[in-house]
Write a structure and sequence with these properties.
Elements lengths: L1 H28 L4 H44 L24 H48 L4 E4 L4 E5 L1 H6 L10 E2 H4 L3 H12 L5 E9 L5 E12 L8 E9 L1 H36 L6 H33 L6 E5 H18 L3 E5 L6 E5 H17 L6 E9 L2 E8 L6 H6 L20 H12 L3 E7 L3 E9 L8 H14 L1
Parallel strand pairs: 8-10
Antiparallel strand pairs: 1-2, 1-6, 2-3, 4-5, 5-6, 7-9, 10-11, 11-13, 12-13
Helix pairs in contact: 1-2, 7-8, 8-12, 9-10, 10-12
Length: 507
């Protein structure tokens, strides 16, 4: 608008000025009179006035246009970009249709609306990216925490056999001081040639596959442990032709190896225990079949040996079956209120003849109190007989075996003590194992090595008690059984049993 008005004012001023100059020149050329000079002065003054007036109008219009533009720009600057859009035309100044600036401001509005829409999209994309990045970081933290808390050592390598990942248990196993194992060479991190070869072989395979093997690794503590290692290949990249890495997960199997060893020992011991009586039976059967017995006395002797060895086999099988049932939890248990002293007296009567035949004194030191227990009669009786029999077997002639019972708070306890050969500290730790027999005492008495193992299962697993041993070489042993006390009497009932116990305790 300013340029259009200025273009109209300039020619008008120029015309007035040239007219004044022309009249002045004509007057001067005609000789000029006083009237002509006055007219020329008036003409020049009017022209100047008109020029000044035109200039003032132009300047005022220019100022108005400038103020209008400034106001419009201030309004535009105060607009919230979030209100801009295709339907937000009211957010920009409204100009008349005849206003030359209308198209300019409409173009500005469209440009700002476009920029606002793009800015909003960018803000949404940025917020989405930040949320995804935050979730990814959180997921990485979760994975690192889960990986570090895994009980199995885990090691992963890339295509160059550099360690990519190693959890806490792996660094502890191989004695690495910190978890900064990235890009460390595999052979510098892992101290097991077999594991290194397993990872490398798994990584070199063209197809992603898994392999497993058992490893024996010497840990940072200097002790050797058994592990089963499972290695799996993975592609580093989305393409099938991408290089392969490998990850190995180790699981400690020391307990499994120990179980395998014990099972092997168990099978070997059972085979030996069965083979010995079978060999005797077979030998004496062959003697009888070949008529090697000259008289009835010899035949009776042979038959007695065969019968004793058959009984030995029967006891072995029965003990094995009882152990298997107890360990499997399928044994039939018939618990009832019992008098412990009566049960111990019965067990003493069973072994008293064996003790007398070896000139061993069997001392009974039972409590005068009523010691009530809720137990399976046959199982506890078998345990007591077993302990007394062992004491008699491993006590030299002329020795003493003592059976003692007493009250221990809410528990009852009975001990079987002897002054026999005794046990070493190592033997005390293993005496309750299946088929374990003290080598130095094997010639003193025959046995299967199952009696004490069976007794411990009966006392601890079935009745919730405890069986312990204290011994000293050359001075004897004491086996102690502790059971939960019960005030129930098998004959007089709860109230009478309680009254009897109170009276005896008061005494």
């Amino acid at each position: 608008m300013f340029r259009s008005k200025l273009s109209l004012a300039l020619p008008l001023v120029a015309c007035v000025a040239w007219s004044a100059l022309a009249l002045s020149w004509l007057t001067e050329s005609a000789g000029g009179s006083e009237l002509t000079a006055s007219f020329r002065a008036a003409l020049l003054g009017g022209s100047t006035t008109i020029a000044i007036a035109v200039a003032a109008v132009v300047w005022r219009n220019q100022q108005n246009a400038r103020n209008s533009i400034q106001r419009q720009l201030e309004v535009l600057c105060q607009i919230d970009p979030r209100t801009l859009g295709d339907n937000a035309s009211g957010a920009v100044p409204t100009l008349d249709a005849s206003d030359a600036w209308r198209s300019v401001f409409e173009q500005v509005h469209r440009t700002l609306a476009k920029y606002a829409a793009e800015t909003q999209k960018a803000e949404v994309a940025r917020a989405t990216a930040e949320m995804r990045a935050q979730r990814s970081c959180q997921r990485v933290d979760y994975l690192e925490h889960i990986l570090s808390e895994m009980p199995q050592p885990i090691v992963a390598v890339n295509e160059f056999d550099d360690v990519l990942i190693s959890n806490t248990n792996a660094t502890k196993l191989f004695g690495i001081g910190d978890n900064s194992v990235e890009h460390r060479a595999l052979d510098e991190f892992v101290r097991c040639d077999q594991l290194i070869e397993l990872l490398r072989d798994t990584r070199r395979r063209k197809t992603l596959s898994s392999r497993s093997c058992e490893l024996e690794i010497c840990g940072a503590d200097g002790q050797t442990h058994w592990y089963t290692a499972t290695a799996r290949g993975f592609a580093i990249g989305a393409s099938e032709t991408s290089p392969h890495g490998a990850v190995a997960v180790l699981k400690e199997i020391d307990s499994l190896k120990e179980l395998q060893r014990r099972n092997a020992e168990f099978v070997s011991s059972v085979s030996h225990e069965i083979k010995t009586p079978l060999a005797s039976i077979k030998a004496f059967v062959e003697l009888l079949a070949d008529d090697e017995a000259d008289d009835d006395t010899a035949r009776e002797e042979y038959l007695e040996v065969i019968n004793s060895q058959a009984d030995r086999l029967q006891r072995l099988v029965d003990n094995l079956l009882n152990l298997a049932r107890i360990e499997a939890g399928v044994v039939d248990v018939h618990k009832q209120p019992l008098s412990l002293n009566e049960l111990l007296e019965e067990a003493r009567n069973v072994v008293v003849h064996a003790a007398e035949s070896r000139c061993i004194t069997l001392v009974s030191d039972l409590s005068e109190l009523y010691l009530g227990v809720v137990a399976d009669r046959d199982m506890i009786l078998q345990t007591a007989i077993n302990l007394l029999s062992n004491a008699v077997k491993y006590t030299p002639q002329g020795g003493t075996v003592t059976l003692r019972s007493r009250l221990q708070g809410h528990q009852v306890q009975f001990d079987v003590s002897d002054n026999g050969v005794g046990l070493s500290a190592d033997d005390c730790c293993r005496v309750f194992e299946k088929f374990y027999r003290v080598k130095k005492d094997q010639k003193m008495a025959s046995g299967t090595g199952l009696g004490l193992a069976l007794a411990k299962h009966i006392v601890e697993d079935v009745h919730g008690g405890s069986l312990a041993v204290e011994s000293e070489l050359g001075k004897g042993s004491t086996f102690s059984i502790t059971l939960l006390r019960s005030v129930h009497s098998p004959t007089t009932g709860d109230k009478n049993a309680h009254d009897i116990e109170l009276v005896k305790t008061a005494d």
